[in-house]
Amino acid sequence: MREISVVYQDGMIGMVEPQVLQGLIESDEIVKFQRTEGWVYPGIDPVRGLVESGYQGIERRFS
Fold it and tell me: Most CB within 10 Å of its CB: which of 5, 40, 41, 44?
């Protein structure tokens, strides 16, 4: 699986697995992460999964 580039709040740059990214966004540990189209800034740019959808089914995206 391809790792994602992230920039942490302290300015450090790292690589994380996709399944770790959501937790980092929710805990406000990162400033930005990189998508194919460029850098994404959580809280500024739209980020899938931050809005409660009400879906109660099994998570299948990372299976």
Answer: 40
Domain that holds residue 45: 1-63
Q: Domain count of the chain?
A: 1
The pair of three-digit structure tokens given for residue 32, joined into one six-digit string = 């930005």
Give the 3-state DSSP-derived string for 1-63, with helices as H, strands as E and coil as C: CCCEEEEECCCCEEEECHHHHHHHHHCCCEEEEEECCEEECECCECCCCCCCCCCCCCCCCCC
CA distance 24 to 4: 12
